[in-house]
Amino acid sequence: MSAGLIYAATGCLLFVLGLGGVLLLKALLRRILAFNLMGSGAFLVLVGLAQRDGTPDPVPQAMVLTGIVVAVAATALALTLARRWHALTGRDDIARVRDTGLQIRRKANDRRKAAR
Amino acid sequence: MSPLLDPLAWLILLPLLWATLAFVAADRHGPALALAGIGAQLLCVIALAGDVASHGSNGHLAGGWAEPLGIRLVADGLSLVMLLLTQGVALALALYARSYFSRATPPAFWPLTGFLLAGMNALFLSGDLFNLYVTLELVGLAAVGLVAAGGGAAQIAAALRYLLATLVGSGAYLFGVALIYGSYGTVSASLLGTLITAEAPLAVWLAGGLMLTGLLLKTALLPFHFWLPPAHGGAPAPVSALLSALVVKASFYLFLRLWLGPFAALTEALPGLAQVPAALGAAAILWGSWRAIRADRLKMLVAYSTVAQLGYLFLIFPLLGTGALALQAGILQATAHGLAKAAMFVAAGTLIKVGGSDRVLGVAGAAAHLPVSLFAFALAGVTLMGLPPSGGFLAKWLLIDAALAAGQPWIVVVALSGGLLAGIYVFRVLRLAFRRPTAHDDVPLPQRPAALLEWTAFALAAGSVLIGLGAAPLLALIAGVQP
Amino acid sequence: MKTLWRSLTVIALLGLAAALLVAVLGLPPAPVKLAGEVAAKLGASGVSHPVTAVLLNFRGYDTFLEVAVLIIALLGMLAAGLPPPPPTGSRNAMLPTLARLAVPLMVLAAVYLLWAGAFRPGGAFQAAAVLAAAAVLLHLAEILAPWPRDRRGPRLAIAGGFLLFLAIAAALLANGGLLRYPPEHAGLLIVLIESGLTVSLAVNLAAFFLLRAPEEQR
Lengths: 116, 483, 218
Description:
The structure holds 3 protein chains of 3 kinds.
Chain A (H helix, E strand, L loop, with lengths): L2 H22 L3 H23 L7 H32 L11 H15 L1
Chain B lengths: L6 H18 L5 H26 L2 E5 L8 E5 L1 H24 L8 H17 L3 H20 L4 H32 L4 H7 L6 H18 L8 H7 L2 H24 L3 H6 L5 H19 L4 H17 L11 H30 L15 H15 L5 H15 L3 H25 L17 H19 L2 H8 L4
Antiparallel strand pairs in B: 1-2
Helix pairs in contact in B: 1-2, 1-4, 2-3, 3-4, 3-10, 3-14, 3-18, 3-19, 4-5, 5-6, 5-10, 6-8, 6-9, 8-10, 9-10, 9-13, 10-13, 10-14, 12-13, 12-17, 13-14, 13-17, 14-15, 14-16, 14-18, 14-19, 15-17, 15-18, 16-17, 16-18
Chain C lengths: L1 H24 L8 H8 L8 H9 L1 H21 L13 H23 L7 H17 L6 E2 L3 H20 L14 H25 E2 L6
Parallel strand pairs in C: 1-2
Helix pairs in contact in C: 3-4, 4-7, 4-8, 5-6, 6-8, 7-8
């Protein structure tokens, strides 16, 4: 098994680990880190699979450089929003922040029924 | 035409240019830059349409390098329709936003809108899978920025939820691209169309699944729709219109391109696969309409309506390739919905701004002082319900025709039920708005809004209806798309 | 109910991981080999390192768009709202001394990275990252003050590099394609673009840390 395949296999595991993290974790900071893990997994697969026969390939390496910059931008935006969220609410997760349109209407209906 | 004036390239360069200038300049120059830029972009699309109509498609090699080394930009009938929709709706929304934000523009609104449009144009013109990833991120991050712009805690939470969903989607897409490059050594969409056969290795099937699922997450198809109502319902009206009318169509366009292009061999090998998006689409229509009927806030009603209408787009997948006009039905639905939903959000924004309340009940009696907005809302509702002669009617007609021809009658049932359900939530609003004010409602007459606020809604809604009447050139454009 | 969903998700993810491993380890060789083509066209690209050639010439359009992505992230930060300036007056003696020693070396390293990108791993992004780190170090040592939101300088710097790239891309349309470099001038144009990008990206990355809301509005 060549080095490239080892990188690729590791990349697959990192990707799934990161995906699980974003879906299952609660704290925002950890979910953002998990997203970075997903990205790193994809980059490893890009570079590793391309050189599984031993010859290095510059095209996916350039793609990974581009991908890293895009991931940095996305992480920066995510951290900015998390920082702002924390400044406004003091919380570090967005669990149980749901659209409550349905409940409000039910309460309004109950109030109207009671007023009659 | 001199290559310096190639409209295809300028469609990408122009929005980048005016967005950067808007970033540097003060806020008050934003609308002028945007209107000039989008106007020029619209001219480029029309020029490009002329090229495509005469030559069938228009290609451009970025960097001058042939594939697979370089990146190929390509404009065919399908991209042209999406580009026309984008530029047209963006122009109307820019006019609307200029008046709507007359007193307080959310920070960075104009530059973000410019970059969003640049990303969308680049997406519709790109023929390289990795380049498409970069454009997806351009569109996604700009959209998240717009949702968060100037907002309080609720908007920030909605933006965070949207961001996490969109990042998972593009992360899955990127991983799929990595697998594809590893399998074939190229990411050129046209080359992959010939290289991927039904005997493709497992990695390609997994890549296809990951990429398409990631795009479904970005298009907010049930069960991945959870991020859309807070984001579209909580943002300011021009932003909601941009997102619902245009941004979700971009990932749908890419889904369609991948389905028909590189992964065509895979989807043809397993015909049952097409039932999955169709089933999810049917569920989206029913669930989204139900939530819209029960919504308490006006913009939430319109946002859930988007969830429902996006379901129609996925009903076409079992019908593609049967020789019927299913592809045209889907694109026509996307276009008509884009115009109608933009009109609806614009009208809702005016109603909320003037009425002061964002609840559906706050619309009561609005017909007396906002007749044009209500008329626009009603016209947009006509398209969503699928009443003749609107674009929505023609799209549903084509869809039902194709479904009957392909022997899938359940699609007909779903499409018709969706129209009825849309009627319920549209008439919910209209019934309240046209209610005659009684003695109990002695609310002081609110001030009249700027005329532009109302007439942009009307123009967009009229567009969605007129498209049904004048759809022949549109259908002709799409007819040239393979298959 | 919630634990049921979580368990199902974990099982699905384990299945995905297994499928991916099986798929990746059993792949046949790829039909298209781009490495050879890059080597063949390297002479016409204007640089001598294959990755730089791909990044700035063959797939330069990708690089062009990714600079825009970074600007969008900054715009998103401006849109969401900036944090207040950090509290001052907590200086210790070690950090400023370290900064004063390290920053000139970092600037030197950045210039070297930019120049070396033509013939070994390096280039505009790496140089910009080092410069931005130097700026953040100065900021942490309280030698560099935070930038208020409306100051024009950082915005001009960020826009300048990108507009230079855009102008060159547009001008090259006359040569037959977006970013189609004429082979004899490719090296010079690439150096020009990279220099502009280094400044622009460095200021952009530093702005993520240094841009603050004005002092009065807390």
